[in-house]
Amino acid sequence: MNVGVAHSEVNPNTRVMNSRGMWLTYALGVGLLHIVLLSIPFFSVPVVWTLTNVIHNLGMYVFLHAVKGTPFETPDQGKARLLTHWEQLDYGVQFTSSRKFFTISPIILYFLASFYTKYDPTHFILNTASLLTVLIPKLPQLHGVRVFGINKY
Question: What do you get for the CA distance between the two ends of the chain, in Å?
């Protein structure tokens, strides 16, 4: 019996990205970040696009691939404490709609940043490195893998 638990999910972290309006909120958040960076007077448009891409990917990496556990009280006896949010998403099932959305969104942002920076080599290297840091951990082959034991516990 779960006293004080208002949700019906064993682990709400598994379904939060599928909740109503989450994708729109995510896209609006990225757009708001971009507008805020554009409002800073001494940043050029290419710098703003690169900063938007890098900040987005850094946030995505931290919240989806580095932080483990769940912020909710769960009756699963701590099974989720060793899993990142990406590994908990959709109960670990690969290629669901939310996983596809969160895989494609940094790619689209990368294409936009590359286009608006006119493929400048410096921006291109920064944007590509940033993209790879969020795409590689999303690969199904790396589900549950800890490279060199980093973030094992």
Answer: 29
Which one, of 151, 134, 17, lies nearest residue 85 by Cα? 17
Query: How many CB atoms sit inside 10 A of residue 141's CB?
Result: 6
- pLDDT of 133 above 80: yes
Average pLDDT in the chain: 87
For residues 88-105, one letter each, b for 16 or more C-beta atoms within 10 angstroms of the residue's C-beta and e for the rest, the string is bbbeeeeeeebbeebeeb
Report the SS3 class of residue 44.
Answer: coil
Tokens in use for 130? 């940033």
DSSP H helices in the chain: 22-38, 45-60, 85-88, 97-116, 121-135
Is the pLDDT score of 13 beyond 90?
Answer: no
Domains of the chain: which residue ranges? 14-145
Q: Please enumerate in sequence order all residues whose Cβ is within 8 A of that of 134, keeping only pairs 6 or more positions apart, or say none.
A: 57, 60, 61, 64, 65, 106
pLDDT of residue 30: 97
* 111-132 burial code (b ≥16 CB/10 A, e <16): eebbebbeeeeebbebbeebbe
The pTM (predicted TM-score) of the whole model is 0.87
Cα–Cα distance between 27 and 21 in angstroms, integer? 10
